[in-house]
Amino acid sequence: MKPTPFTESPSDAAERKAVAPVICYPTQTLPRPDLAAYRAARAGATRIDTVVVPPREAASWTVPAGHSFRIVSTKGPQVGDLNLFHADNLNERLYTGKTRALNGTHLGPGDQLFSSFPYLRPMATITDDTLDWYGFDAFGGAVHDVIGTRCDPYTHALLSEGGQYHHCCHSNLTRALAEASGLPLLEAEAHVHDVVNVFMCTGFTRDTGQYFMKASPVRPGDYLEFFAEIDLLGCLSACPGGDCSAQHSSDAARCHPLLVEIYRPDRLPEGWRPPALNSYDRSHGR
Ligand SMILES: [Zn+2]
Prior knowledge:
Blueprint: H1 13-17, H2 35-42, E1 46-53, E2 58-63, E3 68-73, E4 80-86, E5 89-93, H3 96-103, E6 112-114, E7 122-129, E8 142-145, H4 153-159, H5 169-181, H6 185-189, E9 196-204, E10 211-214, E11 223-228, E12 232-238, E13 258-264
Antiparallel strand pairs: 1-13, 2-12, 3-11, 3-13, 4-5, 4-9, 4-12, 6-7, 7-11, 8-9, 9-10
The protein binds zinc ion.
């Protein structure tokens, strides 16, 4: 709980609060993908691989630029924590903060996932989502957020007087990345980053602004699909929180596997070009 304000409201407080907000990054200036072209090209794609993400574990896969991958709910409501890297350069990785600033707190079809500085370019485009009907609920909740971090053993230790738990998404992603990259665990850990919370339903409470979660509306058969703009290495953790209706960082919740399906297209979206590296010259004015 935050303390009641120490400072008395100024006489024009209501006036100041009534100023209408402006969108930080108006989408009129953000190049948006031609979603119809992506979806038309997707129609003839062939599934070439399927990866099982076991409950409370993570798995990895690679997908070449121009291919698609689909995260599928299988046996029951389950949330997944997604990390993305350039397949040949772990330093180019998903930047959820800028992805959020550009697209909004929750992602859906047509949104693009951006990579870290100095690359800052689209890594993937969301082309399909069977939960796109959900929108925002009465609590301000929505699915597929880029606002959370990932459940991790450090926060757990902080909040549980030193409790040790090794199947947090952070730990699962670390093990999966170590295996995929051949890096020692502690080196791999440094590359693990904030996630897309696939299928998770989250928001901020209106009164206190606290991050909340609620039971995911995902059901078996639902999926979220991405088009790979660049060669990607993906890592996905099936969160120990299960549907995230109650708690995570424990073995208490019912958990289910997730599937990742890789699709090879028979053609590329019309007009599509691989995204170039960011054009900033990096002189920083010197
Ligand atoms: Zn988690």
